Amino acid sequence: MSDLAGMDRPSLLKPQREVPHVHEPKVANKSTPYWWEAAPVMPLPPQPLARTVDVAIVGAGYAGLSAGLALAREGRSVAAFDAMNPGEGASSRNGGITSGSIRLDYATITRRFGEEKAMAIEAEGKVAREFLYDFIKSEKLDCDFQLVGLFKGAIGYEQYEKMARGAEALARKLGIESYAVPYAKQRDYVGTDFYRGGMVRMDIGGLHPAKFHAELLRVALASGLAVHSNTPVTSIERDSSGFRVATSAGTVQARQVLVCTNGYTDGANPFLRRRLVPVRSRIIATEELAPELMARLMPKRMMMGEGRELGFYYRPSPDGRRILLGGRDSSRAGDPAAPTLRLRNGLGEIFPELENVRLSHSWFGNVAMHRDMLPRIFEKDGVVYATGFCGSGVVWAPWVGTRAAHKLMGHGEQARTAFDFRPPAAVPFYRGNPWFIPAVIKGYALQDRIAWWRASR
């Protein structure tokens, strides 16, 4: 790829042709998640609704099941309710990368919340990943987990220098194996000249997200957690003995309530809905690629990211035969071809050999963004919330869900977390319709174009 003084610049700087929504071409063979091929989400058999429980949990994704498992193993009677099939939301639709990333950088967290909170959050990320990896191993969860590391590509040499300093700080302060990768060594990690070096973190890996959820559901059910699928909670009312939790299947009396909805929070909880904005994230999966091509493009089978605001994340499939690539989707309705084509074009920019690759799957799911951009445990009117994972729920949802369970049980040390503080701020003029998302995405895209033009390539 030529530098900025050349005539040919990446197509991300050029306006892309909009694909019409009428008579759209079929870009991918399937619009369901690739992960569902090996681990389809399914309804659970109907079961009687308990009249009273110690804890009612709203949501049966990673966070809700992790909390329910911890509670049930301590002898609590617990019922979890999901408006869809358990795991049908983000838990089975995500990229399966155990990044545990925080969208705010260290300097911003320090400015907003203080240096003590910033350092605690940095340190907790390491502990949360170790918790997840130990949990997978100790529970013998069959979810294709591999601790292969993550390479993050820099768009220019100035960004590379910043990444190099960050890698050095992670190694020095937290003992994380992390290091800079100069441009001359880049192809040892990823088969492209698109980036100008990058950094590696070896504490990040990949798993099969739908298998992980299925295994988590298996051990949670075995522990005694009652999970009700396709049973939305319609209201939560406080009374003298706890809470009356109304569901589509009837009403349950609960001593405590834990809400673990995230990107699929609905109007039954207007307080939370005003604080969480659902943003579409889309992933494409290529057809099976030749082994020698996969070896050239992804020689170390690492997870991949990049330093753009609207950067892509990508990875090999667990069997090493495909590449999966994801990014933000600014569409708000239907399943148009344009967002899929944008991702395929992005894949072709990174790997020119894949410019015309055929896609087997293209799907989307909602991530929950909010103004603070930090995962959160908080309490409101006696109800405890574990939510706000901002696109990094593979690590944070099990961790925060488990901490919230210990908070309900009054286990001081086990409940301790840097993410237990005030609720996220409400989003002005927002009541559940994210009308402003396309404009926000365009703003990020503009920032990327400016950063690209300014980058020293």
From TrEMBL:
All copies of the FAD dependent oxidoreductase domain together span 54-405
Q: In the record, what terms sit under GO molecular function?
A: oxidoreductase activity
Q: Which InterPro entries match?
A: FAD-dep_OxRdtase, FAD/NAD-bd_sf
* Key words, A-Z: Oxidoreductase
Name the GO cellular-component terms: cytoplasm
- Locate the region Disordered: 1-20
Spell out where the chain crosses the membrane. Answer: none
**What's one Pfam family the UniProt record gives for this protein?**
DAO
Q: Which Gene3D superfamilies match?
A: D-Amino Acid Oxidase, subunit A, domain 2, FAD/NAD(P)-binding domain
**Name of this chain's protein:** Glycine/D-amino acid oxidase
**Organism of derivation:** Mesorhizobium muleiense
